[in-house]
Design goal:
Blueprint lengths: L4 E8 L4 H4 L5 E3 L14 E11 L7 H4 L1 E5 L5 H4 L8 H20 L3 E11 L24 E2 L3 H12 L3 H4 L4 E9 L9 E4 L6 H4 E7 L4 E7 L7 E3 L7 E9 L10 E3 L12 E10 L1
Parallel strand pairs: 2-9, 3-11
Antiparallel strand pairs: 1-3, 4-12, 5-14, 6-10, 7-12, 7-14, 8-11, 8-13, 9-10
């Protein structure tokens, strides 16, 4: 696979700014009631984006918020069976302990607390979905550039996950991270792309958006296009390889929070429709 590929990345359209000056941006993750738009801003595809090889980039996690790590080799024989990831109990019993060991070793962290994971299975017709085809009801790859949390959202998550222990927990340095891997490799079908936070103008490029579900709303950042952005991906990522990327650091805030999304390799794409697992966690130092 080429070290640098040219692809399209989906961003928020800046022309929507006039309306958003008086109305908070939102996305509804359920059928919109009559008269209400499913979202009040536009995401469009920007072609001609250079996506570089993260393996060869020499970026340090401490400076750029992203790194590649290996899963614990002792666990890999079982990890190579994608069907096992359909079992939540197996994930908790087998995968997450192996992930804990691998992530703490890679980052030099003392402990990790997982608070969420999400299995994604691309349907063959994605980004359109045809009812009844394989995996049409599964969670699909996310195509728009985004950060999963704003600082405000993360403060609420601390209350939600740690409750009365929040004060003690936050006395230590901690980070909020994502860990992503394909369930089989090499991954050549809608791989992940990662935006170097050093190339992001946080004041101009990030838009706080409410993602609204039937019972909860989460505040995230969507991203505006900027020609200075530098994107990276992991060519032919294997099922034994993890990408760890930052969302928050208790010492530096979201300076190194990494916007990310899936993207289409086009003619370079191959293989079965992508299946992947992302895990979200607190790591403590």
């Amino acid at each position: 696979m080429a070290d640098t590929v040219t692809a399209s990345i989906r961003y928020v359209r800046r022309e929507d700014n006039d309306r958003l000056a008086t109305e908070k941006p939102y996305i509804l993750h359920y059928d919109a009631p009559a008269g209400l738009l499913p979202n009040n801003f536009t995401i469009e595809s920007f072609p001609g984006i250079q996506v570089r090889n993260l393996r060869a980039a020499g970026l340090r996690y401490e400076d750029h918020g992203m790194t590649i790590a290996k899963l614990d080799e002792a666990s890999m024989s079982e990890m190579r069976r994608p069907e096992l990831f359909d079992d939540d109990d197996w994930i908790e019993r087998t995968y997450l302990p192996a992930l804990h060991r691998s992530v703490c070793a890679a980052l030099g962290a003392k402990s990790m607390t997982v608070f969420d994971w999400m299995l994604r299975k691309r349907s063959p017709s994605f980004p359109k979905r045809n009812v009844g085809e394989a995996d049409w009801e599964a969670v699909q790859p996310s195509l728009s550039a985004h950060i999963d949390y704003t600082t405000k959202e993360l403060d609420g998550r601390l209350d939600q996950y740690f409750g009365e222990e929040k004060e003690n927990v936050t006395k230590r340095r901690y980070q909020v991270i994502n860990i992503w891997k394909p369930l089989s490799g090499p991954c050549r079908d809608f791989p992940m792309a990662y935006l170097d936070p050093k190339s992001v103008d946080r004041d101009r490029d990030l838009l706080a958006v409410d993602e609204v579900f039937p019972n909860v709303a989460n505040e995230v950042y969507q991203v505006y296009y900027n020609p200075k952005h530098k994107w990276y991906y992991v060519p032919d990522q294997l099922e034994s390889e993890l990408v760890i990327f930052n969302a928050y650091d208790s010492e530096t805030g979201q300076v190194n929070a990494v916007p990310h999304c899936s993207f289409d390799l086009g003619e370079l794409g191959s293989g079965i429709p992508r299946q992947s697992l992302e895990v979200r966690a607190f790591v403590f130092y």
